């Protein structure tokens, strides 16, 4: 029977030859417990490669990606801002407008401007169709007044002269005031006598006269391409006045 009061003898350390250190006198540290090993899948009869694993993953992800794509498109179409379809419409609209503008520019280049200005030479009828004084029948169409006078200040004869209805100040069109026997410019108040001589306002010189002759058919022919200026002494030119 063992003696219970006998001091307990320390048991000899149990160490394998592998864990025992050769350094005597140092206590050996206990080994850290290893984590449990993962179960090994049963791959018997199967060959598995990285490529096949990636393909399988892609195949598995493909059905999931399609609904996500559709959901993204639906969210885009439902956006309060411009959606994809509206952006496409805008882009096509801008492209069409640019194409039309380029086409118009090309057409304009191919067909240059045609000026529909009144002719510089024109007939205004027979002398017998006019009475004494100022006639305005061609003022709007040709920009002239036809004046028949019994005694012209430059030619000292009876006949016709043609006044250009352009103010010599800044080019506006004066009005004929029959009650005052004058032409009055509404722009800055220049006034001209029936002869065309300026007498009030800022106009620096008289109105200009146009060439006037008798055509072969007996009508009065006016040529606005040729002007005569009083201050240059040109009103005495034979074609600045038609004697009649
Ligand atoms: Fe005729 Fe100035 S344009 S007065």
Describe the structure.
With 244 residues, the protein is an alpha+beta fold. It has a domain at 121-243: Rieske [2Fe-2S] iron-sulphur domain (Rieske Iron-sulfur Protein, 3-layer Sandwich), CATH 2.102.10. 24% of the residues lie in helices and 19% in strands. It has helices at 50-77, 84-110, 139-142, and strands spanning 121-123, 133-135, 144-149, 159-164, 175-177, 182-184, 191-193, 198-200, 209-214, 220-228, 242-243. Strands 1, 2, 3, 4, 9, 10 and 11 form a seven-stranded antiparallel beta sheet that branches. A hairpin with a 4-residue loop joins strand 7 (191-193) and strand 8. The radius of gyration is 56 Å and the shape is elongated. The model is unreliable at 1-28 and 43-58 (pLDDT under 50). FE2/S2 (inorganic) cluster binds next to loops.
Can you count the beta strands? 11
CATH class membership of the domain at 121-243: Mainly Beta
The percentage of residues in β strands lies in 15-25%
Count every helix, treating DSSP H or I runs of 4 or more residues as helices: 3
CATH fold-level topology of the domain at 121-243: Rieske Iron-sulfur Protein
The parts where pLDDT drops under 50 for at least 5 residues are: 1-28, 43-58
Order of helices and strands: HHEEHEEEEEEEEE
What's the architecture of the domain at 121-243 in CATH terms?
3-layer Sandwich
What about the largest sheet? 7 strands, antiparallel
């Amino acid at each position: 029977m063992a003696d219970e009061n006998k001091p307990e003898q320390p048991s000899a350390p149990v160490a394998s030859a592998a864990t025992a250190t050769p350094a005597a006198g140092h206590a050996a540290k206990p080994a850290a417990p290893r984590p449990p090993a993962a179960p090994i899948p049963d791959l018997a009869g199967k060959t598995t490669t990285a490529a096949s694993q990636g393909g399988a993953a892609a195949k598995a992800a493909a059905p999931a990606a399609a609904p996500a794509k559709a959901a993204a498109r639906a969210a885009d179409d439902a956006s309060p801002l411009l959606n994809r379809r509206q952006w496409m419409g805008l882009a096509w609209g801008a492209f069409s407008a640019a194409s039309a503008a380029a086409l118009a520019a090309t057409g304009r280049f191919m067909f240059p401007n045609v000026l529909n200005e009144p002719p510089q030479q024109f007939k205004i009828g027979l002398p017998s169709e006019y009475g004494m004084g100022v006639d305005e029948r061609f003022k709007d169409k040709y920009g002239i007044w036809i004046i028949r006078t019994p005694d012209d200040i430059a030619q000292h004869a009876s006949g016709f002269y043609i006044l250009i209805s352009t103010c010599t100040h800044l080019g506006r069109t004066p009005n004929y005031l029959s009650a005052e026997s004058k032409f009055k410019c509404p722009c800055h108040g220049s006034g001209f006598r029936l002869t065309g001589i300026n007498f009030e306002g800022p106009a620096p010189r008289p109105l200009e006269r146009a060439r006037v002759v008798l055509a072969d058919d007996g009508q009065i022919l006016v040529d606005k391409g040729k002007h005569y200026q009083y201050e240059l002494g040109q009103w005495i030119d034979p074609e600045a006045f038609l004697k009649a």
